[in-house]
Amino acid sequence: MEIRLDDLSGPEIIAFIGEHLTNMSATSPPESVHALNIEGLKQPGVTFWSLWLEGELAGCGALKELDSQHAEVKSMRTAIPYRGKGVAKHMLEHLLEEAKRRGYQQVSLETGSMEAFVPARGLYEGFGFRYCGPFADYEEDPNSVFMTKLL
User: Fold this and answer.
1) Cβ neighbours of residue 15 under 8 Å, at least 6 residues apart?
2) Residues 77-89 pLDDT 10s
3) If 0-12 CB within 10 Å is exposed, 13-18 middle and 19+ buried, where does residue 72 land?
4) pLDDT given for residue 54 in this prediction
5) How far apart are CA 65 and CA 111, in angstroms?
């Protein structure tokens, strides 16, 4: 597995993020979709990586700096053919190591509360994330679950 810092300009990643947004819109009401589009992922304070297996785009993830001590995991996604093959685990390991390297003390995330997000929540729980209330600009939402991890 190769994890690359990605500038979000390649056609594969543009299509992948488009698919991610479409999927999030299909599983959550519009007011509960917090996934970033390409322009959102290019904003200052957001760093984006893609994960490749044998030349194929297999997944992605990003860190968004909330402040000098706190970052948010964004845009975690695994391509359907690679689900269950450790892609998300490798990406999350990378994001957490990068967060530690940058000196963050805490990493948080928002994910869905619906059945489709059970595997994601299980992954985060396995890495020591604990459920918490909304953080940053989020508000309570029955379609969202908030999790955090102290580093």
Assistant:
1) none
2) 999 999 999 999 9
3) buried
4) 93
5) 17
